[in-house]
């Protein structure tokens, strides 16, 4: 029986690590979202992949893309070139 204690303590330590890192909350949110989905997707794993970690990520990404475009235009202006166009 004493051989099981180290495994249990390692599991408990790993569980606390996941909680501190926010992994448990993120997984719980995605699974609750899937549970509340009126039309369950064919591929639940794909649903989890698609929705995991998307809390406001699109807004940040769009802001970063806009900033990149702004800096590219400024860089071109400073180099004396025409500003790049989208497309």
TrEMBL record:
Keywords: Coiled coil, Nucleus. InterPro entries: AMY1 (IPR026060). The keyword S-adenosyl-L-methionine does not apply. GO terms for molecular function: transcription coactivator activity. It comes from the Eukaryota. It is found in: Nucleus. Its main location: nucleus. GO terms for cellular component: nucleus. Residues 54-81 form a coiled coil. Belongs to the AMY1 family. This is c-Myc-binding protein. It comes from Parnassius mnemosyne (clouded apollo).
């Amino acid at each position: 029986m004493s051989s099981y204690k180290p495994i249990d303590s390692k599991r408990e330590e790993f569980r606390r690590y996941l909680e501190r890192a926010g992994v448990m909350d993120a997984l719980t949110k995605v699974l609750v979202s899937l549970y509340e989905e009126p039309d369950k997707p064919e591929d639940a794993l794909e649903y989890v992949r698609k929705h995991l970690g998307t809390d406001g990520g699109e807004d940040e990404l769009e802001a970063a893309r806009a900033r990149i475009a702004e800096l590219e235009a400024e860089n071109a202006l400073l180099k004396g070139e025409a500003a790049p166009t989208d497309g």
